[in-house]
Inverse folding.
């Protein structure tokens, strides 16, 4: 359902964007994109020791601290809720941060964005889902994602804050350091087989992280998009084998895939809290994962996604730079 946006003043792209979780994958990509076009950007982070690019205003704050976060967002035109934590921490962190972000954005009179995912739908039909597909989560993490969005929509409908959500598939690119990305890109870079959970010949969607950031900024600065979730899916779906082939070509390595069976992930989950959480989400890798983005393409017809051949080349180069002792992407 398309919700009517709350009344908010139109915002110039020159006004301040505040990025929560600016050391994370989406957060660091937002910082890069905003700096590249000269937009003032304030980064809210927990770790004072990690670098940020020159020209970024830094605020040290635990995003669960509602009062502290509201102070950090004073003067913002847009607040990007890009906080993410490892799966085992979701229950303790994500809902308090979302509530604090709503309060902070509302106090500033700012637009609030959220990079979402497809967890809230439950298993997807093989021909894909449109933006208005029913939310029918079958997992604890899927239900939590729906609960986060429910808080956002309630605040939007109450006129407290103008909200827009972009639901996206798997991220890859500079700064995307999670274990799945490492098992694909870093192992290929090292000349080893890429590891994947599930069928390598199933169609899957991937979005380059910088495209995800650009889409969030575009949605934030387009008032008639607010009040609903948009699918931002990247280039057309391709098989995992084809995607690995592009990454392997960029790495100058054989396109080999080591399939990790679901039973092995669940068995290892007996000893690893992270893999235990991954085990709940195995359906994401055991069937095609396709979301349809006709609405976004119609609203932003000139938006150009990075082709996977180019994105995988950039990503392999980034992983190689890390292996060579390169700086974190957020400081690049």
């Amino acid at each position: 359902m398309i919700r009517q946006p709350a009344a908010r003043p139109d915002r110039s792209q020159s006004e301040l964007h505040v990025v929560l979780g600016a050391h994370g994958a989406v957060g660091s990509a937002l910082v890069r994109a905003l700096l590249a076009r000269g937009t003032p950007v304030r980064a809210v982070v927990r770790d004072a020791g990690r670098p940020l690019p020159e020209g970024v205003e830094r605020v040290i704050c635990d995003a669960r601290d509602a009062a502290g976060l509201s102070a950090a967002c004073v003067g913002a035109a847009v607040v990007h809720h890009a906080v993410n934590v490892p799966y085992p921490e979701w229950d303790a962190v994500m809902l308090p941060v979302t509530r604090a972000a709503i309060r902070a954005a509302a106090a500033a009179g700012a637009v609030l964005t959220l990079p979402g995912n497809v967890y809230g739908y439950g298993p997807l039909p093989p021909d894909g889902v449109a933006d208005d597909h029913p939310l029918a989560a079958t997992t604890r993490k899927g239900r939590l994602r729906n609960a986060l969005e429910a808080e956002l929509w309630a605040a939007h409908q109450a006129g407290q804050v103008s909200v827009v959500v972009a639901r996206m598939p798997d991220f890859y690119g500079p700064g995307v350091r999670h274990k799945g990305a490492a098992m694909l890109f870093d192992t290929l870079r090292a000349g080893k087989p890429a590891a994947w959970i599930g069928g390598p010949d199933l169609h899957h969607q991937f979005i380059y992280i910088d495209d995800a950031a650009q889409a969030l900024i575009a949605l934030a600065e387009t008032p008639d998009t607010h009040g609903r979730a948009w699918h931002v899916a990247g280039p057309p779906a391709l098989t995992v084998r084809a995607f690995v082939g592009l990454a392997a070509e960029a790495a100058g390595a054989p396109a080999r895939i080591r399939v990790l069976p679901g039973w092995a992930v669940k068995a290892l989950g007996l000893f690893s809290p992270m893999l235990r959480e991954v085990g709940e989400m195995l359906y994401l890798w055991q069937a095609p994962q396709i979301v349809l983005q006709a609405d976004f393409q119609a609203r932003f017809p000139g938006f150009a996604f990075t082709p996977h051949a180019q994105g995988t080349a950039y990503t392999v180069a980034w992983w190689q730079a890390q292996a060579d002792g390169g700086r974190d992407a957020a400081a690049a």
The mean pLDDT is 91. The longest helix spans residues 90-108. The first strand starts at residue 17 and ends at 20. The domain at 17-169+207-234 is CATH 3.40.50.720 (Rossmann fold).
